[in-house]
Design brief:
Layout: E1 2-8, E2 25-26, E3 29-30, H1 31-41, E4 47-52, H2 57-67, E5 72-77, H3 82-92, E6 100-105, H4 113-122, E7 128-134, E8 141-143, E9 146-149, E10 157-166, H5 167-180, H6 188-195, E11 202-205, H7 216-228
Helix pairs in contact: 5-6
Length: 236
C-alpha cells in the first residue's frame, strides 16, 4: 500500500500572508489543491493523509469535499513543529507497518509524477528514499559569522520532497528519537539518518521545478510555471 502524507501544518509567517501559504490561490486553485491533485491522479497512490493546523481543519475539510478527492482518507491535526506533524501521520498509519509512506510538503505543488513513481520503485529495494538535487552554490559551514569549513560542492545536494519510508522504519526512528528526548533533525530523512544510522537512505534525482513556496517571489514563479505547463522530467 502506498500512502501519501501531505504536510500542510505551516502558517505562512515568512510569506506575511493573512492565511497559510497552502491556501493561497494560484491560477484558480489553492496551492494545496495543486499538490493533492498530483497524488490523487497518480495511479500508484492508494490513500492520502493530510496534516493541518487545527485552526484550519474545517477549511481543509470543506476544500477536500468540494474538490471531490476520493483518495483523501485522513485529515489529521498537526503539531507545533514539522516533526510533530509528520509523527501524527506516521502514527496514524501504524496499522499498516509494511506500507510505503510518501511524505511531501503541501507547498511543493510542482512535484513530477515520475519522481513519485521512482520513489515508490526504489522502496522495493530500500526502506528509506529521498529526493535531492545537486547544489550549484558553494556551501559554507559558519559559526559566529566565521567560516569554519567549506565542504566539497560535488558532494553537496539540496533536499526536496517526497521523502518515503516503510512505515515500521520511520516509526522506529521517531520512537528512538522520542525515547532519547533529543529530536533535532529538520526533516524525516534526518530522523532516520541520526537515530537509525545503519539504515541506508537512497537518494534519487529531483529537479529544479520542484520548488518549495517560501517567499512571495516564489508565488510569481509558480504562476508562470503553471501557466506555461512546463514538462517535468527526472534529471538523470
Amino acid at each position: 500500500m502506498n500512502i501519501s502524507i501531505i504536510l500542510a501544518g505551516g502558517t505562512g509567517a515568512r510569506l506575511a500572508s493573512d492565511s497559510p501559504k497552502q491556501f493561497i490561490k494560484v491560477c484558480g486553485k489553492t496551492i494545496i489543491e495543486h499538490t493533492v491533485d498530483i497524488f490523487e491522479q497518480h495511479p500508484q497512490i492508494d490513500e492520502i493523509a493530510i496534516v493541518i493546523n487545527v485552526q484550519y481543519m474545517a477549511e481543509l475539510e470543506t476544500l477536500v469535499q468540494k474538490a471531490g478527492y476520493k483518495k483523501v482518507k485522513k485529515i489529521l491535526q498537526g503539531g507545533a513543529e514539522r516533526h510533530d506533524s509528520a509523527w501524527a501521520a506516521i502514527n496514524a498509519c501504524k496499522e499498516y507497518p509494511n506500507a510505503n509512506l510518501i511524505i511531501h510538503d503541501a507547498v511543493r505543488p510542482m512535484v513530477d509524477t515520475e519522481i513519485i513513481t521512482e520513489v515508490i520503485r526504489k522502496l522495493e529495494q530500500y526502506n528509506a528514499v529521498t529526493v535531492a538535487i545537486p547544489t550549484t552554490d558553494t556551501i559554507y559551514q559558519v559559526e559566529e559569522n566565521l567560516i569554519q569549513k567549506i565542504p566539497a560542492r560535488k558532494k553537496m545536494m539540496r533536499a526536496q520532497t517526497p521523502q518515503a519510508f516503510k512505515q515500521h522504519v520511520i516509526q522506529k526512528a521517531y520512537q528512538v528519537a522520542f525515547n532519547q528526548n533529543d529530536l533535532t533533525a529538520t526533516d524525516d530523512c534526518g530522523v532516520v539518518a541520526k537515530y537509525l544510522p545503519t539504515e541506508p537512505i537512497c537518494v534519487i534525482s529531483g529537479n529544479e521545478h520542484n520548488i518549495k513556496i517560501t517567499h512571495r517571489e516564489d508565488l510569481y514563479l509558480l504562476e508562470k510555471m503553471l501557466q506555461s505547463k512546463l514538462p517535468l522530467t527526472i534529471n538523470h
